[in-house]
Amino acid sequence: MQKSRGIISYKNVQKNYLRQRQLKRGADSFLLWSLGVGAVISGDFFGWNYGLAAGGFWGLTIATFVIAIMYLCMVYSLAELSVALPHTGGFYSFTRNAFGPFWGFICGVAVTIEYVLTTAAIVFSMSNYLKSLIPNVPSYLLWLLAYTIFVAIAIQSLELTLNVSVFLTLAAMLVLGIFYVSMLAADVFKPELLFNVPANLGESATWLPKGWQGVFASIPYAIWFYLAIEILPLSSEETNDVPRNMPKALILSMFTLIALSVLTLVLNSGVGGGAAAIGQSNVPLKDGLEAYFGKGVTSDVLTVIALTFGLVASFHTVIYGYGRSLFSLSRAGYIPHWISVTSENHTPYRALILGTVVGLICVMLIDLGSDAVDAVILNMAVFAALISYILVMLSYIKLKFSCPNLPRPYESPLGIFGASLGSILAIFALVACYFIPAYQPGIKGIALVLIIATFYFFFCSRNRLVAQAPEEAAALKNSKFKIYP
Predict the structure, then answer these.
(1) Strand-by-strand arrangement of the 8-11 sheet
(2) Of 8, 142, 352, 450, whose CB neighbour count within 10 A is largest?
């Protein structure tokens, strides 16, 4: 049976439809915490340091402070939304409930782009590090091996996925902890090295060597410290006692990441060749390890081990993220229904495989291109994330007014003020990045994908949405428009 509401057509499906698309609960607050930290922790191992070249130490510090406030505002909003609408759709579900199917779909597409491109960038970097130990192995074999291993883990079971995430996250944190202690205990950290980035004409070398434009240019790299913390709401249907565990995990993950980002930014910038050298390095931890162990095989091996743990932790977790995002969009009918069928172990194996295929294509594009292609893909991931952040925080504000009676077992202490401040900062970050010419190709790339998604929605998706999908059912119930029994 099919019914329409405006230009949107919903269809009622048989009970067997949802039975073939079930997930399994099993995550508690500790497992969720490891998932949240693990998704982000690679940002402490690489990527952030390019902000030193873009804005100097203080420029990157200011950008990191602003972005940390934005993420805190968003995380508290997510904690409330996740318990009010505990569905696997996450950001898509929140935006769908607030602004309707089209904007929900656009938000879901942006989140999926972010996760697929992030895994592509991570596996490309991972292969570069591993090639120093195994130089004769072709890169494409390393990509295939990495994707195969961790997609297989994600397909096997939720329990295995979460346990592996705990191990990798704790291992990556241990590596960072050893690095921090070594930098201080061996007296290799020198505060004066924080300020050796060459200044532009007329700018202060110790304060803002690249001026305020350098602060703007540092924003995408500051985001790498926290990018993908928003993965946690995607696990809502796999979480035990969502009102109790989800807010705790989100908030604790965020404060853990803030602590790590401060230690990394300060201690890793003041070692080796200082901020000037660290800002140009592909492996910023290596400068610190070489300052402690000296150049040679020992530091090279330790660097590869350290970076592999950090990168693999995020790679593994973000694979989980794009699998759930594609699963939820498919279950609701925005993309083909066959994608959301789950395995006997209740894992979205088809969505995981599809996201992996797209990720591998992106890795090949990076490899065939140049450093510019790599930068564009990294920036596309950041810009897609910012678009989704803006939409979800505006959704929080909208739902506060349009659905005041929506059950909210947890309420953000920052409320509408926090969501408003977070959305303003996210808009500021997006606009600031747009005015940096080097970042504009990434923004144009995201715009192109979203235009294609818009055409797909109006020509395909809008005619086959599923009324009983949890995210759609909640939205239709909240809007008092019932088209199903």
Answers:
(1) 2-5, 8-11, 465-466
(2) 352
